[in-house]
Amino acid sequence: MKVHTFHDGDLAAEMDLVCGVPYFERLYICLEGCKKGFLVGCRPFIGLDACHLKNKSGGQLITAVCRDPNEEYFPLAYAVVEAETKDSWTWFINLLLANIGQNKRWVFMSDQQKGLVQTFIDNWPQYEHRICCRHLYNNFRKNHPGILIRELFWRAAKATYKEEFDRVMDELKGIDADAHSWLDAHSTKKWAKHMFREDALTDTIVNNMCESFNSRILKFRSKPIISMLECIRLYLMTRFQDNREKILRVESNICAKVLKRLHKEKMATSRWLACWAGQTRFEVKNGLQSFTVDLATAHCSCRKWDISGIPCAHAITCIFFNRQDAEQYVHPCYHVSTYKACYEPIIAPINGQNMWRPSGVTPVQPPIKRRPPGRPKKKRAREPNEPTSRRAGISKQCKACGKLGHNRRSCKGEIGGNSSLSGTTNRISTSKKATMHSFSSTPSAPPQSSMHSPSTPSAPYLSSKPSFRPGAPHQSGSTTQKLGAHQNSSSGNPNPRQKNTRVVTSETIKASKNASRYMEAIRHGGSQSSVHGPRK
Q1: Among 224, 236, 234, which residue's Cα sits nearest to residue 351?
Q2: How far is residue 531 from each of residues 70, 394, 432, 477, 487, measured CA to CA in Å?
Q3: Confidence at residue 317, expressed as pLDDT on a 0 to 100 scale
Q4: What is the mean pLDDT of each run of 10 residues along the chain (536 residues)?
Q5: Are 433 and 416 in contact (CB under 8 A)?
Q6: How far apart are CA 202 and CA 67, in angstroms?
Q7: Domain CCHC-type, which positions (predicted)?
Q8: How far apart are CA 100 and CA 220, in angstroms?
Q9: How far apart are CA 452 and CA 500, in angstroms?
């Protein structure tokens, strides 16, 4: 842990700090179990990344993450720093190299972190430093968008030999010369596969293993520093034990994800023809394309086998020609035995704060909160194609009408019995249905009709034959006279409020929710005038 003690009274007074008291500045942690597992079972490939802490003190968490034999992330070390600067990165990498040693040709990968690229150029030029293609493309497409340019970029990034890379770059130059010049300016940085050395035994071009680990500890980053570090240690301790138990159920000699990738390479061998040159050397052809393979040295001229350690489709074609298993030519770093050795070290449990004894050292004060310029941001800066909501891509479905794009509260579709009939396009509002319900329950006080339609300005109310009771007087004539009088009055002096009236048929009433009440009112009144009331 690194602390800072203020002895200058002017600076301490300016920041309202106490002189002579240590303040927390940085803390570096590399657990012994993670260190031993990395040196025994992991490849010399380390990913670097930093993420913001969400506590009151602020700061950032720097992580160094590796790849285990099953192509999963393996946390190696992490540190809490005040900010992501060249000085903090130099301090972290110096401590990391002091733990793992500097006798190997380590390979590092990161995005274009602040001060990190220049740190490797100034201090460790002997180590290979790769750039994450996803972050590089995000900067590239700001000035050079387009689907075709995107496809050419990723084809160039995945090209495993120089000749293919040059052909793709020439094709890009014919489409957009400025885009070609922008990528050509980054030729000194290693971002494409053909630039990689064969020491790391991995051909990954993105730093997703660090992103996965940062997202896994997202819920821990809002806690205080000591509580966050304890949660991370406990998570790593239990993860090691879970992986030790899971690998016991694997029956093959190769890890599961590597077998899946090897199967894809096997499926691509049908396009290639192996020509035996002698001993263990072959020439593999497919039309005008041809590559040379040497099974004894695990070499293919496409360099895909050399970079990853997994036989490519050209090599598997030659292996099948010799009637051998492709699993025998997979590098030992992907074996199950290597995976067991990687997670064999145990991260020792420790006692809690209730078992701690006083150390007699002056208590360390909380870190000094750095206030960046400008208005504080609540949310991180999102990428242009990143969804803004967790429900992005999930369409809402209305429970009332069953349509997509809205919910039941904002539904504007047809509701009620009229929606099931042909020729009806408008819905009955809730207030109108409540009014009709009250009218049907009290037929002695008949109100005016509230059923409207924009297509029929004036129309008769009855279009079906009314029902009669035995012994009741026949009222069809009177009803016809009333309707005829209403038509004459409406045609002579049209009322603007009556322009939206429409025909209410018996089928409409039967299809509604209160059909029984409406029909009972018709039986007693002899017509629908008892339901809707007399026209004025």
Answers
A1: 234
A2: 77, 46, 13, 19, 19
A3: 96
A4: 56 55 89 95 94 87 95 95 90 93 90 80 90 90 91 94 94 93 81 90 92 92 92 96 94 94 94 94 94 95 95 96 95 96 94 86 81 70 65 74 84 55 41 47 44 40 42 43 42 48 58 64 57 48
A5: yes
A6: 9
A7: 398-412
A8: 27
A9: 4
Radius of gyration of the chain (CA): 39
Q: Which of 1, 6, 89, 115 is nearest to 361 (CA)?
A: 1
Question: Which residues sit opposite 289 in a β-bridge?
Answer: 286
Placement of tokens 């006080």 in the chain: 445
Residue in the structure block whose two tokens are 């009229």? 418
How far CA 12 is from CA of 3, 15, 18, 26, in Å, comes to: 15, 5, 6, 19
**Phi, psi for 275 (deg, rounded to 5):** -115, 120
Q: Which two tokens stand for residue 157?
A: 């990034």
- Structure token digits, residue 378: 């609540």
How long a stretch of residues is the chain?
A: 536
Residue 38 · residue 54 · CB < 8 Å: no
pLDDT at 404: 83
Q: Are 13 and 170 in contact (CB under 8 A)?
A: no
CA 32 centroid distance within chain: 33
Q: Check residue 150 and give its pLDDT.
A: 94
Give the predicted TM-score (pTM) of the model: 0.69
DSSP 8-state code for residue 461 = S
